[in-house]
Design goal:
By secondary structure, the protein is of the alpha/beta class. The protein has one domain (7-70, 102-113, 135-231): TIM Barrel. The chain is built from 8 helices and 8 strands, in the order E-E-E-H-E-H-H-E-H-E-H-E-H-E-H-H. The strands form 2 sheets. A 6-stranded parallel sheet has the order 4-3-8-7-6-5. Strand 7 (160-164), helix 6 (169-177) and strand 8 form a beta-alpha-beta unit. The chain starts with 11 loop residues before the first strand and ends in a 37-residue tail after the last helix. Bound molecules: flavin mononucleotide (FMN). Residues 32-36, 65-66, 107, 140, 164-167, 186-189, 214-215 line the site of flavin mononucleotide.
Length: 239
């Protein structure tokens, strides 16, 4: 199997974090947050630790769960852009004050179809992130959302720009190679392939993800039971 250093599989420095390793270079492959419904009582448990440990690899950024609270607030106030701006500003400023902007990343999904100027809010947030010096911006484009180029956001943000939403190995390589993104995050592929960066490196086949077990309340099934390459059960992902 080919083991080339593709744009996706080269080292990267994100702020103070050096996403590289002496021998193995996975630096631009990121785990998207996929933990919804797997933390019972909203507390991290041993099976969550196992899930992240399985996916840990040298230089690979693992993004854990995003907050449901902010999503609910924004939905409830969809018609009120001022409220959303104020809320976002307060959250970003408070988190930056608490942990330091050099450790702050924000996930945005610029797909609001209720908004006559859907770029305005993400650009407002990005300007704020620039002002505080945020580490990364993680942009999600849902596959069934409005097709939209992230280029205006990519150009506006001064930190590390991570893209997400339906990427495979080749598309991730292209996004990084074209300068469309610094890093690419993988959700479903990384869920079903705990050793995804290594499979990318070796250009190996991938396990299918099982949509039927995405949201089951089981600490193992469809969560920590996907096989590694060494276990030899890889198959091609259906498209
Ligand atoms: C089962 C499942 C759980 C998810 N959990 C979360 C979550 O907790 N927080 C979040 O922000 N996004 C969550 N997402 C969205 C993913 O992070 C990602 O944006 C989406 O799967 C698209 O990326 P992909 O095409 O690489 O899978 C989840 C998606 C799935 C399928």
């Amino acid at each position: 199997m080919a083991m080339e250093a593709t744009p996706l599989l080269t080292p990267y420095t994100m702020g103070e974090f050096n996403l590289a390793h002496r021998s193995v270079k996975y630096g631009k492959v990121v785990l998207a947050p996929m933990t919804r419904c797997r933390s019972y009582g909203n507390m991290a448990e041993l099976h969550n630790v196992l899930y992240y440990a399985q996916r840990a690899a040298p230089g690979v950024v693992l993004i854990a769960e995003a907050s449901a609270v902010s999503a609910m607030f924004i939905e409830d106030n969809a018609a009120n852009m001022d409220n959303i701006r104020r809320f976002t500003t307060e959250v970003i400023t408070a988190v930056a004050d608490e942990v330091g902007a050099h450790r702050l990343g924000v996930r945005l999904s610029p797909v609001a179809d209720y908004d006559s100027d859907p770029e305005a809010l993400p650009l407002h947030v990005i300007r704020l992130m620039n002002d505080v010096g945020a580490l990364y911006c993680h942009m999600v484009v849902p596959r069934n959302g409005i097709p939209r180029s992230l280029l205006p956001f990519r150009k506006a943000f001064k930190g590390t720009f991570i893209v997400n939403g339906g990427y495979n190995r080749e598309e991730g390589d292209k996004a990084v190679g074209d300068g469309y993104a610094d890093l690419v995050s993988y959700g479903r592929l990384f869920l079903a392939n705990p050793d995804l960066p290594e499979r990318f490196r070796k250009n190996e086949g991938l396990n299918n993800y099982d949509t039927g077990t995405f949201y089951t309340s089981d600490p193992v099934v469809g969560y920590t039971d996907y096989p590694f390459l060494a276990q030899g059960q890889e198959t091609q992902v259906a498209t």
